[in-house]
Amino acid sequence: IGLASEPRGAMELLRSANKAFARFITSDVYTRLAKLGLRYEDLYIETADVKLALSRLPKEALIARDQRLKRAMDLSMKHKFLPDDVAKLHLEQSVTRSYLTPHLEAISQAKKEKFLAPGSLGTSGYDWSP
Amino acid sequence: ATPALRRAAWGAPDLSQIPGVPLNVPLYDETPAPAPEGLIPNPVTRMTTLPNGLKVVSQADATPVATVGVVVNTGSRYETAENSGASYMLQLMAFTSTASRTHFKMVRDLESMGAQTAASAGREQITYTVSGLKANVKDMLDVVAETTLEGSFVEWELDEKKAFYAEEVKDLAANPLQYVTEKCHVAAYAGQGLGMPLMCAPGKLGKLTAPVLGQFMETYFSPANMVLAAVGPDHDELCKAAEAAFGTVPAGSAAPPPPKAAYTGGDFREVSDSEVTHFGLAVEGVGWNDPDFVPLCVLNMLMGGGASFSAGGPGKGMFSRLYLNVLNKYPYALNAAVFNSVHSDSGIFGVHGTAEPAHVGSLATVLVEELAAMGSKPFSGEEVSRAKNQLTSSLFMNLESSAILWEDLGRQVATSGKRTSPEDLAKQIAAVTPEKLSEVAKRLLKSPPTVVVYGDTTAVPRYDLIAKNLA
């Protein structure tokens, strides 16, 4: 029952290997993003929910996001990266900061509330209301 | 023979059996007996003050419907330049997201109760009402308590309402008589206190952020500054439910009093490209607690007026002075009516006029003469008694509506701390004499006039000429 002395199973080995690999991939992605000056959330594909969340951001956040994307596109075209110290600063302070996730969670919460409300199509698949 | 057979086949009665009685002969000999006393109980207004200062006033009735709500003693008069327009914004944001439920849940909960909501922001009071079944009074009070004490001003809901606000400002300009009354206030009180506009300019809406609105609510929406009024539920049950919904809120500090009303009179002219010109000509009226308030209401009824083309039957005021002397005599007068705006310590009493630009100068002259005659020409007993009867019957007939009764209860207690019954008001109306009306009219005409012109601004005479002719 999970004592350290028991021989570890194959599934556990695979899980821990997967975790280590995941950590490596994540840090690699973050480093590459930092070299281009982007945040992880800048790369979200603009679905309807993401568009709605973007429309709820304050103007300064939207402008900053556009500038980061423009800077990254410019660097990519020139096959250059940000200077190392700037990239390091960006990696420490900025890459993982989330600005869309709270809004996306609120949006999905609202959708769920609407779906589950009595009388909406979510409860029965057809609407009995006259 | 054939008609009788047809009638029998349809089951219709054979009319030859009923004796023919002409319509000008009464069918019965005796008059019906009056209803026994106590069959319909006289309504009783009861008032209690909760420990945290919230006043609860209610009048029970026998219908299954209850109207509950809160009147808050704040409005555009209490606004400053930084938060001008906050009261109207609070009206638009009424019954939206709160700390406990989202706007969606609020709407669904109200729908499941079968309740309807209304909010209205004025210069000195903001009201929130919910009407529904008496069985749901507790839930309705919860909704009212949440929206007045726990409103959360969510950014995107605020932005939606601001877009609507901008449309409302345009609609106000499209309703010229209301617009003229609004501008009369701005001009008469020099843009301060009672002269603060009800709605700010759309360009200033960016100032009304969530913290600003929250601060406004924090200052003025305390239980001691609010009145909970209800029409329908039993008073003791209502107090229990109010204690549950509002009792946990501490009394808080007293709200700052408003700036004193300083009537200055003034002139405001705005150009518009409409085919008619509207103007307002006003003087300082009285406040709610003034002893001349009831006589001024009688004077309002007596002067009367309205539109030159209007539908309606008896009782609409065709024998009022403005109808007899202005609308019936001068075909160019499209509209001539008095208006009476009453606030807690001051008011505005004036006349609206509408005419085409070519004639609006003459209409203005005629109306100035009428207002001056109000002070100089004595009132006949007949017109005073007609005005008193019309006012009394309008008072009682309006109070038959539960929405208006709710407003009466709530606003009276919020303004003066007590509710004067309609019977007492009827006694005060009956005590008005023609001499009293002349005295009130002379008092009004002593104040400097307010002139508002909306349309062709050059057609109405200059302010100083109007002031000279009114004095």
Give the SSE layout.
The complex is a heterodimer of chains A (130) and B (471).
Chain A: H1 10-36, H2 48-55, H3 59-77, H4 84-93, H5 101-116
Chain B: H1 2-10, E1 45-49, E2 55-60, E3 65-72, H2 86-92, H3 103-113, E4 116-121, E5 126-133, H4 137-149, H5 155-174, H6 176-188, H7 210-220, E6 226-232, H8 235-246, E7 266-271, E8 277-284, H9 293-303, E9 305-307, H10 321-327, E10 335-342, E11 347-355, H11 357-376, H12 381-398, H13 402-416, H14 422-430, H15 434-445, E12 450-455, H16 463-470
Parallel strand pairs in B: 2-6, 7-12
Antiparallel strand pairs in B: 1-2, 3-5, 3-6, 4-5, 8-11, 8-12, 9-10, 10-11
Helix pairs in contact in B: 4-8, 9-12, 9-15, 10-11, 11-15, 12-14
Short description:
The complex is a heterodimer of chains A (130) and B (471). Chain A has 130 residues and is mainly alpha-helical.
Written overview of the protein:
The complex is a heterodimer of chains A (130) and B (471). With 130 residues, chain A is mostly helical. Chain A has helices at 10-36, 48-55, 59-77, 84-93, 101-116. In chain A, helix 1 (10-36) packs across helix 4 (84-93) and helix 2 (48-55) crosses helix 5 (101-116). The termini of chain A are far apart. The model of chain A has no long low-confidence stretch (mean pLDDT 89). Chain B has 471 residues and is α+β, with helices and mostly antiparallel strands. Chain B contains 16 helices and twelve strands. In chain B, the strands form two sheets. In chain B, strands 1-2-6-3-5-4 form a six-stranded mixed sheet, with helices on both faces. In chain B, strands 7-12-8-11-10-9 form a six-stranded mixed sheet, with helices on both faces. In chain B, strand 4 and strand 5 (126-133) form a beta hairpin. Chain B is globular and about 60 Å long. Mean pLDDT of chain B is 90; it is low at 1-9.
Amount of beta strand of chain B = 15-25%
Helix percent of chain A reads 55-70%
List low-confidence stretches of chain B. Answer: 1-9
SSE string of chain B: HEEEHHEEHHHHEHEEHEHEEHHHHHEH
Largest sheet of chain B: 6 strands, mixed
Q: How many helices of chain B?
A: 16
Q: Give the strand line-up of the largest sheet of chain B.
A: 1-2-6-3-5-4
The dominant shape of chain A is flat
Quaternary structure type: heterodimer
Largest sheet of chain A: none
Strand content of chain A: under 5%
Class from secondary-structure proportions of chain B = alpha+beta
Rg calculated over all Cα atoms of chain A: 22 Å
Helix content of chain B: 40-55%
Let me know the number of strands of chain B. 12
Cα distance spanning the termini of chain A: 58 Å
Number of helices of chain A: 5
Termini separation of chain B: 83 Å
